[in-house]
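Changelog note: in this version the structure field was regenerated for every chain. One regenerated record is shown below for reference.
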Amino acid sequence: MEPIPFDKRSGKIWFNGQAVNWSDVKIHVLSHGLHYASCVFEGERVYDGEIFKLEEHTERLFHSASRLGFKIPYDQKTLNKACKEIVAIQKVKDGYVRPVTWRGSEMMAISAQKTKIHVAIAAWEWGSYFDPNLKLKGIKLDISKWKRPAPDTIPWDTKASGLYMICTLSKHEAEKKGFTDSLMLDYQGNIAEATGANIFFKNKSNELHTPIPDSFLNGITRRCVIEIAKSKGIKIIERKIKPEEMENFVGCFLTGTAAEVTPVSQIDKYNFSVCDLIKDLSKSYQALVRKKTAA
């Protein structure tokens, strides 16, 4: 069965302070956020009706907006409440929440000092980001020709919509080649991340190596998994990693709000096994998000 297009769904979306019918939420085609990417967003997971790390996501949304030079016209407490309300209205048990805020249509030029700032929050039922069967075997990644820009060229520590243009290009190219996703390098040619998730590697000594997030987002899930690993006595090494070093690693996985903990079986010519350590981290992460006791 084909998924329902997002503009054809039903229910309510929180839009500029109130719950509005899904089909009635409109923005003008000349909105600054559409033309100039003055738009930031968050992606949040709902588990058993509760939003995981809601406050941290909201804090990051406000940080992103500030970095793009605009002020969200609500406080964080209001948006936290609105996120919970829309999840309840939509009766989402296991799903996704998308808060988004952008500059409006009062001006149409590079300058946007007088634009109104809009905020919307949508929520819907949503399963695994990657095919669950693929996740069991480990997904396969291409290596993108597009690189993460230097940190002095973009607001790299934000979830700004414009930063994801090269991610879409990278993922589409990977899918054409039969891969599930793509590995992106940074501006210096070091390993950075996947198109929407952070990356970890395991060596033969059961240490985890992960790139330093100095030109890409230090994900909330990334930080959670590092805490879980440290609690298990697993050594975490954050450093610059060259692509050719992948031949020395035996395991690999991605982390992200959407990806959760997703094993990787192949990146270009490099192969990895879905080992017990990665399976255990995934199990422990699921226990954390669902507030259950890990076995």
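Spot check on this record: The first helix runs from residue 32 to 36. The mean pLDDT is 95.
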